[in-house]
What does this fold into?
Amino acid sequence: MTTPTDIDRNAPVIAHHEIDISAPLERVWDLHIQVDDWPRWNTEVTAAKLDGAFVPGSSFTWTSYDFTVTSTIYDVEDRARILWGGAAQGIMGTHEWLFEPTGEGVHVTTNESFAGDPVEADTAGLQALLDSSLTTWLARMKTQAESTA
It folds into this structure.
């Protein structure tokens, strides 16, 4: 299998969400790559464990909305971009995070694709679930990063 370099732009479910966070890039970046701490600030993530360092080729197992997946880190551009993905229960998810410094903090963009038979069977339902999950994640990230300012 070739290592992905982007989300699956042809997937039946694609989500794109953005948020501005009034906190330093370093704080937002560290919050995001400290996988084991996700359940502390993102209550929808009930378990998370990084196996090794947060570098391409490493993986982490995490549970969100009673859905457990092991994701592999495909790409890390320090304090700028992360791409990871994994398959579980017939769904292949590929997730990109972009971090861009602004005058007031950081602009965070997330793009994610879902593909697979379960996605084909319930595209609307999984699109709604993914959109809700990502907007909640971004809101929780913003609250946590700004509360420690």
Remarks:
- The CA atoms of residues 95 and 112 lie 4 Å apart.
